[in-house]
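Friendly challenge for the regulars: who can give me the structure tokens for this chain first? No prize, just bragging rights.
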Amino acid sequence: MYVGIDVGTSMVKAAVFDASGRQVAVESRPVALDIRDGFVEQDMDEVYAAVVEVLATLASGLTGPVELAGLTGQGDGVWLVDAQGRPVRPAISWMDGRAHELLDAWMASDVFGSVFRRTGSAMFPGCPGPVLAWLDRHEPKALDAATTALYCKDMVFQRLTGVRATDVSDASMPFLDPRTRTYDDETLARLGLSHRSGLLAPVADPVAVGETRGPGLPPGTRIADGPYDLPACALGAGVTRPGDGLLIVGTCLASLVATDVLDLEGGEPAGLHISTDRRGQWLRAMPAMVGTAALDWVLRTTGVRHEEVDALLDATPPGANGVRVLPYFAPSGERAPFVEPRLRAELTGVSLETTRGDLVRATCEGIAFAARHCLEAAGLTGDLAVCGGGTRSPAWLRLFADVLGRPLRVVEGEVGARGAVLAAAARFGVDLDVAEWTRPTAVVEPDSGRAEFYTRGYAAHLARLGEARGRARAEAAGGRAGAGAGAGWAGGAG
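First reply, four minutes later:
Bragging rights claimed.
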């Protein structure tokens, strides 16, 4: 038996696979997000307890010994712990927006662009650079009390094994030089964090390993830490050939393209270059802030149940009867394929004749347009795999195929957990049939007529987005000017 653990933003999951890659069992537990005034935090003890609970439940039903376990989880944010791996304060989520004013200032200077050219990572409010800089200014005692500023899965790994480490994928945002695969001192200096460099965990290349000390899995179980959820899903979906891509329709709408070319000079600074377990290969990632979370908000607001989505999509025509959604719902704005901390969602074309189906379809179309934008920016040229909770809707999958104008290789099950197992197997020298483990379960083909219709819709989406970005930049400039004049607008919870 092989166990994969995926510590997600709102759900902790653990899955058991047999030697052929067949998923034989899965356990999950929800974990809470504390969202208030632009702050988004999580209770580390609650997250760790959920991990232990799902592992203990799985272990009690195993029919054979555990060969190894792999760990993955949400990226970014800051998880401050002491020497024993215990929390110093609540974890700050990747969805957090408290550092947006700081990022505004960096974007108005040369800091933002210069960090991207050095690391290949475009910072956003919830990534460790801005969050640590914000804490250094507003909560220095929390940093003084901490031993390590970890990422989510690394916190869990230290509690399970006692090993303090991160991996090259998590370290990619935003402190790692992707050429040397080591922390970049110049980046730390530009962010004003040189005096906090000791908080960064040692980088295991490619992943750290240890043995569990309990509870959860049997003591002594071999376990590997990483990569984090985006590259783990790429491994679990078999996306390793340059040009091939993966779309993850989850809480975060993530677009990844495998590449063996590292270009840090061209194009708009956005997304990131994730270092992988294979030297000389990266994932060009465009992880948009909001995917299924945007649809969930619309469903809650309209009173539509998840099981009604497919019927509403089938009953509503492409174009949603003129309703349009720019799906930028995150409190911290957007980070891919551009960075606009003040960008917000927009709903237009609504009248008294608008139906719930129009609102749902317009939201699904807006998210699909955002996915196309991200995949084009990431350089997709080959096959495209798709996974995530959104793939449970057949009608939405067909819509994605039509908007993207290409076939979708659907990979079902706990893809991140599967990728974590494959990374652990490679690290421990266990030979698994990767092709069999990553075989797609279905292929969804686009409809040529609808694809042509959505090509025109995509152009209109980009035009509306350009106007919205202009308004967001004007607001940011006005906020900086007001602050300079002593207006005192802190913005959010700053």
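Residues 15 and 414 are 7 Å apart (CA to CA). The chain has two domains: 2-232, 238-480. Your move, everyone else.
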